[in-house]
Amino acid sequence: MRPDTPAAHTAEAERLLRTAKQYPGDREPLLLRAAAHLELADDRPGATALYDDLLSGTPADPHLIRALKAANLWEYGHEAEARAIIEGVRRSRPTEAPPWEIAAETLEAHDELEAAERTLTEAATLLVPPGTAELPHPTRSLLATRHRIRRMLALPHDDWDTRADALHQGTIPLDELHDPKRLWSLGSSDPAELQAEITRLRSELGAYRTALSRPFPVAVLHWPERELTELLAAYPELETEYPTYRAHLTDLEASLRELAAAGTPNLGIVRATVPSYEAFAASEQTHPSHPALLPQYATTLAARSRALPWPPLRTEACWCDSERTYGECHGAVGGEPADR
Q: Do residues 92 and 202 share a domain?
């Protein structure tokens, strides 16, 4: 069965709901992921029921859940309720970027560009203090989305648009990516123009489809040194995956950089432990020595909200626990510190 069929999404939602019963402490991220799969299966009432279930308790991120619920409701005819929820999210002034961006993208999807721009401007006012050198990735994405919508509205650049330009790391400038006129080239019969548009679209996908509406990262495993030593002592078959601890750290950073360069959104790192891995292997009725189990373990930890976003800010602690900043450690040029 293809993984993008409605039946496959329904089956995955059911699996996540079963997992939520096994891990009640991780119920919220698992139910959110299940709701996303139900939306992809076009079971929007089922997704709404899961959002309502979460909101009936004391969720960790109610603003995010409400924004996701509004986006879902509008897609199957409940516009008035969706608008009311979005207005409530705006009035509550969340201190994280994703609820704002989801609300704005919902408005944009239904041709409410002016309202979307106002929403993102409110968010920028709240979340981007003047003079801040670095911003978290979700906030950078919010500024890029605001830049795109303002470009569509033919509004002149302001300070936040300039900031979005400065933070943009793609090879194609934001003004070119977000130029509404470039859509005209899709009707061209000139192969060179069409190829140029394909290049722009690839860059746009890589830079901006950060999956903020679905906060579940593509995650890779980080085994702390003591855990890796224990793992290899118990399961020497895995030495081909992890020849040394230093190689493990180097390969992890290199893999993440390669995924980022390919445009993979929402990357994360999950910390592995041997007891947790063995319990997961038992639940899958598979021996822990099977290398194919490792990515499944990483995905399950990410779905349970155990992932740390990558890359960290350069001034934050490195993910490898070296007690150095990321910029001094694995965030250095080449992805590996000079000494350890």
A: yes
Per-residue pLDDT for 278 more than 50? yes
Quote the pLDDT of residue 198.
66
| Residues 266, 204 share a domain | no
253, 336 contact by CB (below 8 A): yes
User: What are the pLDDT digits (tens) for 253-269?
Assistant: 999 998 888 777 778 89
**Which of 46-55, 138-147, 241-250, 295-304 is least confident?**
295-304
Dihedral over alpha carbons 86, 89, 145, 147 (to 10 degrees): 100
> Which has the closest alpha carbon to 309: 340, 265, 279?
265
Residue 320 near residue 330 (C-beta atoms within 8 A): yes
Instruction: Give the CATH number of the domain where residue 93 resides.
Output: 1.25.40
Residue 42 lies in a domain: no
Residues 274, 218 contacting (CB under 8 angstroms): no
Helical segments of the chain, H only: 6-22, 27-40, 44-55, 62-75, 79-92, 97-109, 113-127, 137-152, 159-167, 174-177, 191-208, 225-234, 245-261, 274-283, 293-303
- The answer on 200 and 228 residing in a single domain is no
> What is the residue range of 179's domain?
61-208
The residues that bridge with 268 in the sheet, in sequence order, are 219, 309
> Do the domain assignments include residue 38?
no
Angle between helices 293-303 and 6-22 (to 10 degrees): 70
Q: Give the whole-angstrom CA distance, residue 281 versus residue 293.
A: 7
- Convert the pLDDT of each residue in 152-195 to its tens digit: 888 999 999 999 988 887 677 888 778 776 655 555 667 776 67
